[in-house]
What does this fold into?
Amino acid sequence: MSKVHTTPVETQPLGNVAQFIRGITFTPDDKVAPGTGRSAVCMRTANVQDFLDESDLIAVPLEFVKRDEQFLIESDILVSTANSWNLVGKCSWVPQLSYRATAGGFISILRADRSKVFPRYLYYWFASTKTQHEVRLCGRQTTNISNMSYERCLALEIPLPPLSEQKRIADILDKADAIRRKRQEALNQIETLSLSSYRHQFGHPIAASDSLPLGECVTMLSGGTPSKSNDAYWNGDFPWVSPKDMKVDYISSAEDHVTDLAFQETNLKKLPAEAILVVVRGMILAHTIPVALTDVPVAINQDMKALIANDGYDPHFLCWSLKAAHNYILGKVATAAHGTKRLEVEHLASFPIPRVTLSEQRHFARIVQKIRDSRDRLATGLPEDLFNSLVQRAFKAQL
It folds into this structure.
């Protein structure tokens, strides 16, 4: 087997080539409608997704923006700096905007020094799996919120080839990212077939003439997070799922894994395959309720609930019952005193499940499986994995 030859690349602390600009602070009463005279759109954690989500915007009067540098410019990177531990560091690229905008207090602006680092190169480095993991470790936990340490994050080392090489790498990753996103759009279209099939067969769960509460159909289990300071709990073989892993409808693995010692010494539980996972706490609940079914046994973190189907109920049917009434459940999300979004267990347990026979449920499950098989065939050689591999090679000077 031939070896991959790499040329050593200079690294520098992130703080040498970029700066963090903290977001503004304001109260809920200070908000105004976007487009109001002398106002600026204020991005929040809900807007920081894989791309900048502009579907739900708020604005504040211009006087809350104290410095010109706090206004967003094209090629800025928005970073979640105060969030649930697993979401600290999540970032979005800022494209050219048609309106004036700034960042709220729970996120910060990472701005490149263009004389030293190509902004798009910086974005791909910061968004890479390796860097995201390192950034999360820069978080300091306070109650349920982790605050990123700017000092520690700015000390992270970024590989810095010449600017021309940085641009070449960013161009390659841009092309690969475009292919990945187009494939994902096709996969998303397939996923809508399961929802359409559910509603064709059972209608809308809320409108069911005969139903019973979800709490009578499942056993609910809570998750937990072993101490991050105890290495003996981590880097094992058992998948530990947190909201960041809930990007698809079926969970087969996770970014983090725990050891058997974590189950012996903490309240962490091993969940069986085909458990239904629901995120019940975190800022992500401001705009969506992630729901997924597990393919393999997993453990979950404290921001989630696992629903184990009781006898007489098919987990696929229950999972898609929740998905079919997503907006109804989203309307039950409340804001706790410290600002965290929560879906209370009593609201989840009272969710109405249509009373249908097990054979009807299993018929639907077979349809879902066929749709999923089609999705898996399309996803063979999914650019997501190829893209992540390409990113890893890029920052090892192997492109």
